[in-house]
Amino acid sequence: TFQCQRCGAKALFRRLYSGEILCERHFQQSLEERVKTTIRRYKLFNRTDKIAIALSGGKDSTTLLHILSKLEAKFPQVSLSAITIDEGISGYRKEALKIASKVCSELRVPHIIVSFEELYGATLDQIVGKARSLGSRLEPCSYCGVLRRKALNIGARRLGVLKLATAHNLDDEVQTLLINVFHGDIFRLARSGPISPNSLGRFPIRVKPF
Predict the structure, then answer these.
(1) Which of 8, 55, 102, 199 is the least crowded, having the fewest Cβ atoms under 10 Å away?
(2) How many Å apart are CA 210 and CA 200, to the nearest integer?
């Protein structure tokens, strides 16, 4: 049985790139420390920000919500809220919506749900079905990415927030970087990194604390 390198307790996690072995408590602590360091290094937030988290209900965004909720408690002038997008994917989104709502209720974080059906008059399943009936061979992700980004911007506008935090991790960033390199997409490459610039003030600034 491996032991935590910080306290000697039973280890539950090994960080592959550094070899660090940690127990549950010190893994959580190390993750919080890394988020704090990223926020400070790249000046992601200030003390009066209105911040929304793009909360899918998955493990990454839920973890980010917990960490930022802890940090918010230390800065009373900061406001934190969450936006969940309901794409309308059968057999997938319903459970995640329940988790997102439950976590926000427990942490007392204001939470809104924005649905594709409300914004576009159809669920993602219906949009993809219609497109395929017209001969389109695009994958569902091709539609979902664009429509989801717009839905998040609309949700942020409804909440009056200026910064939108997403739970993209290093694996996500590397994957996106390689895709953009292979496609020669200079514009998207320029937008990569922990903070995406505000597009002429029309959209919230997107930040990636992970």
Answers:
(1) 8
(2) 25
Residues 131, 173 contacting (CB under 8 angstroms)? no
One CATH from 3.40.50.620, 3.50.50.60, 3.30.390.30, 3.40.50.720 for 43-207: 3.40.50.620
Query: Which of 50, 22, 68, 13 is CA-nearest to residue 163?
Result: 50
Residue type, 179: I
Helix (H) or strand (E) holding 196: strand 195-196
Task: Quote the distance between the C-alpha of residue 196 and its chain's center.
Answer: 13
Write the pLDDT tens digit of every residue in 185-210. 777 766 677 888 665 567 899 999 98
Every domain range in the chain assigned CATH 3.40.50.620: 43-207
The CA distance from 99 to 84, in Å, is 11
- In the chain the first and final C-alpha atoms are separated, in Å, by 29
